[in-house]
User: Fold these one by one.
Assistant:
Number 1:
Amino acid sequence: MPAVSSVLVVGGGAAGSAAAILLAGSGVAVEVVEARPGGLDAGSGITLQGNALRVLRDLGVWPAVQGAGFAFDSLGIRAPDPAGTLVAEIPDVRTGGPDLPATLGMHRPVLARILLERAADAGAKVRFGTSLTGLRQDPDGVDVELSDGSSGRYDLVVGADGIHSWTRRAIGIDTEPLGTGMGIWRVYVPRPAEVTRTDLTYGGPCYIAGYCPTGEGSVYAYLVEDAQDRSGLTAAEQVAVVRDLAAAYHGPWDAIRESLTDDTHVNYARFESHLVEGDWHRGRVVLAGDAAHSCPPTIAQGAAQALEDAAVLAELLSGGGAGELDELLRRYAERRRERARQVVDASVQLGRWMLERTPREQADVPGLMRRVSALVAVPA
């Protein structure tokens, strides 16, 4: 018997929608409130490692994800030279198991739509354009107020509302993400035929120039630079900056650059990271995903860690019993914290080596990646 009968999930991203699917499937009455409007059409691409795919398979969405994305099993390294020379092709570890690809890229809004539709099919009620504005809890439940003027009472609230979580602050956890010193430009454009996996270029005007195929006809490309204030740029100026930075990179980058137009949507974000120490809950409100921990995308584990949070939380709640909630939530954080810490630390360390121009013989990137792969190959 589940430890709770009713749950409000705040946030319809990877952690929130996955938790909703699993909890609703175990017989819990679940509602999801998502602040974004129903279209969920903003965003570029997402890279999903094997451990993320393992959870997506358990959620029952792997066929849809596989059909919408682009799977591959290796990583390319290119030189920042006039030819964009491929200098290495490295087999990727299948951290989700031998029956899943090592990596899959897809359009982030498509993943969000697949997960939320699955949550609705599992019985969860999903409301878009709605956010949490107030909560009060007592030993028996949580009373909430929502931005659409409605209110409700639930056995548990799951705060999966992102890196700058309102829920985290509302329950008195003062951990906030800190910048790591890098910023990333992202564009979502037609896929050149020769792009069949992620290729990374280190050096040139950017720390990293990379791309990931997200479907038969699409790719998302990204350029990582020193963090700076880019907020005052117009949309056309943002595209111009991307063109300028990308001019130093060749091979498939030539076609990517040529596909940019003044109307191309550009996303710019600063790398941030944090980890909530101790318990991830206060009373009957618990955090998951980026609300509890975040890392820069240098090893592409953000969504995977969010999905793992949801899987562990739902496993404990679905198999628990009345009167055990506080202990179950404590065990959830204990199971997830150190694994998330190692991923966060590795992601930040990789960026720090680049920022500090650490000599290659001192920056053990292969060793770091092996440790992360070994860690996440074991189910959470």
Number 2:
Amino acid sequence: MTGGTGGTGGPSVLGIVLAGGEGKRLMPLTTDRAKPAVTFGGTYRLVDFVLSNLVNGGILRICVLTQYKSHSLDRHISTTWRMSSLLGNYVTPVPAQQRLGPRWFLGSADAIYQSLNLVHDEQPDYIAVFGADHVYRMDPRHMIERHIGSGAAVTVAGIRVPRAEAASFGVITPGPGGARVDSFLEKPADPPVLPDAPDQVLASMGNYVFTTKALVDALQRDADDGDSAHDMGGSILPGLTERGDAQLYDFQENHVPGETPRGHGYWRDVGTLDAYYEAHLDLIADDPVFDLNNSRWPIYTHTGPQPPARFCAGGIAGESIVSPSCVIRGQVTRSVLSPGVVVEPGAVVQGSVLHDNVRVGRGAVVRGAVLDKNIDVPAGATIGVNPQRDRELYTVSPGGVIALGKGQRVI
């Protein structure tokens, strides 16, 4: 298998990453950036996870379709994801270009339809269409092999999630034997449960492998339908399912080189503040549920030339991720610190996620919070100590996570 059209003579695969979502449920972290550009795990952006999975899996020609507030995302992709031009490989951001008239993308299916020139240029045998907002490791080669063997128009990756969360996903009903997709319902209010688990549904991960002709034909039919929502999960997948052309791929069957037994099958949709916060807690245990250290399947990113973290007299950090160029003079526990964070003497940071260049002043307290970049917490200030006051001043999630946007002033 090769990315794009060159290489070893195997079937060629073009990667298309859908990265145009607004990310409203992650506000205020998405006030000034697209959701795939949000920092995660100290040094990464959310988009780094899907791109690392595709590249590690040998898909080396990838188009990232962007739209909303995409400047920082475009810059990150352009500066970080530089592939070998000698071999014709690339990861490139593709903004909405109004190729088909004076309109932006109407939905994820329309985004691909308006970008079909990329497909015509590469002429791949298959197209891997993956979402950009999830934290996971996945070897796409196994899914692609299954798809090729099935002869289906599309193969959909599915994962079990609690029934209570079904309204956030496309829900799959598998056919007899579990190989075929019998129905695909986008964010149903009354989802069909699994026969062996009445409290669970089979959710779409937003990762699809298409046979190229089948995708192009489906997109054309969708574009001609004036009543369509022009969405992959709401339009394209239900249509192909009704034709009997959709195949299921169970994510639990996917094995990544170097994975731990505990980390097998890990996948998180971090589309809300609570999910984003909880996914960070998965990183910091002694035996983390999701271990960022896997040299056989690395998550790639670029942080620039930064010095190591520095712990000064009295500076302590436990059960935490501390990124380069941090300076720790106070106490940090169960937290994730991005590059350039400074914690002054007497300051306490507990159960928090601090993005780039946050400064926590002398004697300040930060608990259960997510602070976006360039925030200055003044000496003696508190966040996460007085719940009523926090709700009056800041964004507080349903689960009680306090969130401040980029550069927001701390009272």
